[in-house]
Design goal:
The chain has one domain: Glutaredoxin (3-Layer(aba) Sandwich), CATH 3.40.30.10. It is built from five helices and nine strands; from the N terminus they run βββααβαβαββββα. The strands form three sheets. The chain has a five-stranded mixed beta sheet with strand order 5-4-3-8-9. It catalyses: a hydroperoxide + [thioredoxin]-dithiol = an alcohol + [thioredoxin]-disulfide + H2O. It holds the Pfam family AhpC-TSA. It is an enzyme of class 1 (oxidoreductase).
């Protein structure tokens, strides 16, 4: 099993391109971050998750929180995904799995009796101090964005 960052640990650093090929660096984001990892653009679960985060994006922004999705898909794929579903979130492209592996989301998966390496749907809440505030290592899409929003509300109220 990959090394999944734990609550209180420093967030693994990153500097990778978004859907517009702009480099997004952890060091440059001075607010809360919802960093979520998903397997593939335009698949049912991934679309639901992206739409749910988009639906709550204004509420997250009001709490000083940036939503960032990460998958191995290309920038072009991300642009099509965003346009097709009118998404309002940032999507990072990680075809070499460097960021995905750094957060322990590149794991052994099973499907129809076959084992393979792939992206395990997972989410990390990163504080403005660049530490892991909360982690969901095995995400089920239904109700997940709401659960993350509830947690950020709880943590920012302190």
């Amino acid at each position: 099993m990959s090394n999944i960052p734990q609550i209180g640990q420093p967030a693994p650093d990153f500097s990778i391109p978004d859907q517009n090929n702009n480099i997004v660096k952890l060091a440059d984001v001075n607010e809360w971050i919802v960093l979520y990892f998903y397997p593939k653009d335009n698949t049912p679960g991934c679309t639901t998750e992206a739409l749910d985060f988009t639906e709550l994006s204004t509420e997250f922004a009001n709490l000083g929180t940036k939503i960032i999705g990460v998958s191995p898909d290309s920038a072009a794929s991300h642009c099509k995904f965003i346009a097709k579903h009118n998404l309002s979130i940032t999507l990072l492209t990680d075809p070499e799995h460097q960021l995905i592996e750094a957060y322990g989301a590149w794991r052994l998966k099973k499907f129809m009796g076959k084992e393979y390496m792939g992206v395990a749907r997972s989410t990390f809440l990163i504080s403005p101090h660049k530490s892991i505030a909360y982690a969901w290592p095995n995400v089920k899409t239904k109700g997940h964005a709401e659960a993350v929003f509830k947690k950020i509300k709880e943590l920012t109220a302190i």
